[in-house]
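Reading a protein record of the kind used here takes only a little practice. To see the layout at work, look at the sequence and tokens printed below.
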Amino acid sequence: MTSAEAVTGELRDDLVAAREVAYGVLARLAVGEQPGRAAIDALHGLIAGVVRSASVEMDPFGWRAADPAGAVRLAVWRLFEDEDLGRLRQCGDDGCGWLFLDRSKNGSRRWCSSADCGNRARARRHYERARDGATV
């Protein structure tokens, strides 16, 4: 294995781990549950780690981490700091699992993407009505 492949593998593993930690907390919040202590501790470690060790550079748009894994960790931190997590939802498509921030005026958004998951759900309902002989 070359050193570039090793770095890429390490980076991939680091990014996947960061995603899993963030999702573990956010998925619970999205359905109105409190995350467990272990999940909160893991999230704290994720965020504290980037603050302690990431090299941070100034760009025209503000501060950013110099490496991709640090950038993901900073994005997670910003999500918890800047967003109203009361608007966090999980996609209504049982096969999806994505999370999204519902920024609709009345807070009634159901899918991560109306064009993808929403369209599949509408097509499925249409098919079921047609199959059952209901008028369309």
Observations:
- The longest strand covers residues 56-59.
- The chain has a mean pLDDT of 85.
- Residues 86-136 form one domain.
- Residues 19 and 59 are 25 Å apart (CA to CA).
